[in-house]
Amino acid sequence: MRENGYEYAEAVIYKTVASDLSDLANVNYDVIAFYSPSGINSLFVNFPEFKQNKTRIAAFGPTTAQAVKDAQLNLDIQAPLPNAPSMTGALELYIKKANKI
């Protein structure tokens, strides 16, 4: 736009914020899947004392996978993969491997 002489102003179109998940405090999950680093942030904003224990962590994309590792969580399921381009496919592979199918 500058190259063509247009005047413009930048605007914030959206802002990612952590949702209030306090109603899930006493719920346990087998797998939690994250699709962005902000999801990891939301987890710890809502549950600062979160311990992974036996919960499997899934991440879609390299930046989300890195955020999982940076949060010192174990990354159990990663997508996309050459043989699993979707999270659904990665979960299916993990389940088959875990159940030795």
Helix fraction by DSSP (H/I, runs of at least 4): 25-40%
Instruction: Sketch the topology as an H/E string, one letter per element.
Output: EHEHEH
Number of domains: 1
The total beta strand count reads 3
Quaternary assembly: single chain
User: Which CATH top level class fits?
Assistant: Alpha Beta
Largest sheet: 3 strands, parallel
The average pLDDT value, as a whole number, equals 91
Low-confidence segments, given as residue ranges, are none
The CATH architecture classification is: 3-Layer(aba) Sandwich
Structural class: alpha/beta
CATH topology: Rossmann fold
Q: Enumerate the strands of the largest sheet in spatial order, edge to edge or round the barrel.
A: 1-2-3
Compute the number of helices.
Answer: 3
Shape: flat
Summarize this, please?
The chain is of the alpha/beta class and 101 residues long.
Characterization of the model:
- The structure is a single chain.
- The chain has 101 residues and is α/β, with parallel strands linked by helices.
- It has one domain: 3-Layer(aba) Sandwich (Rossmann fold), CATH 3.40.50.
- It has helices at 37-46, 62-70, 87-98; strands at 31-34, 56-60, 77-79.
- Strands 1-2-3 form a 3-stranded parallel sheet, sandwiched between helices.
- The longest helix has 12 residues, at 87-98.
- The radius of gyration is 18 Å and the shape is flat.
